[in-house]
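Following up on my earlier thread - several people asked me to post the actual chain instead of describing it. Fair enough. Here it is, all 353 residues.
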Amino acid sequence: MMLLAELARAEGLFDWLAAVAVTLARGSPQRLFALVSAVGIVVTVLLSNDATAVVLTPAVYAATRAAGAPPLPYLFICAFIANAASFMLPISNPANLVVFGGHMPPLLAWLSRFGLASLVSIGVTYLVLRLTQHRALAATQIVRDIARPPLRRGGQMAAGGIVLVGVCLLLCSAFDVKLGWPTFICGSVTAAAIIALNWQSPWPILRNMSWEVLPLVAGLFVLVEGLDRTGVIRILNDLLRDAVATSVHGATWGVGIVVAIVCNLVNNLPAGLVAGSVVAADHVPAQVSSAVLIGVDLGPNLSVAGSLATILWLVALRRERQEVTMLKFLRLGLLAMPPALILSIASMILSSP
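Reply from S.P.:
Thanks for posting it. Predicted structure:
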């Protein structure tokens, strides 16, 4: 998925999508806000929240500047929607794979557990962003049209490859097939086709990929193994078992909220890996493990340190000389994350069999 996202960026797919959103907005900042949100949701669901943070953010910045709009309200979408929509599908967030590991629910079971909660998460987050950015949107006028970059053949193939991978992964999830090899094969075939079409070297594409994520995740697995051998995982598992024995409902709420907060202290990847190991060490109710995932995915909307996607988003902003301080993000996060988390967990509980 990292390879597909980088190919789509290099071939101008995201620049084209952002320009199309400006054209469809027809001079309305509010409509542009909704369209950028829609693009962010689609990119997150099909490519992951990291793709939205890394490759959509620069495209949105360029498009809003060309339209004469203040970029920041639209750039906030790329951070908050990326996390809010990241548990719609198993592939929408690398943390989903970290939490469930080899026990990933099949697609229909996943949608049954997280479908409604994900829609609520997206809706509440969008509403909070829309209300908090209302004044900035109302005070500006944007041009009705901007020069739309042509979507080259490579960009069309990248879009087709994304759709192909999405369909393939949905089918694999539906039939409980592990997602690793199908993703690798589809991404590699698409990349090879685009590179062959353009008669270009693959090294520029490979060089621009976020390879630092791989040793980071590998190091986290080593960390969790160390915690397991020192007995920390067992202690946490005993605490969770006692909480579940006392009240499944209370454990669900407690675990979801605690995990969401911890993610902002240590980042959601290590928090998710530890929480996933604790959940996997004992058979816990589906509600509890679902609350863990919601906390891991949605909790990082509180602070910039919460997830890798948000950190990458901040790096992308600074590259464009846009400054968002930790305090400014926290103020918005305090408005956006808690209601989305509470209502998402409540929706998950209500939709559970």
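Residues 2-143+152-351 form one domain. That should answer part of your original question.
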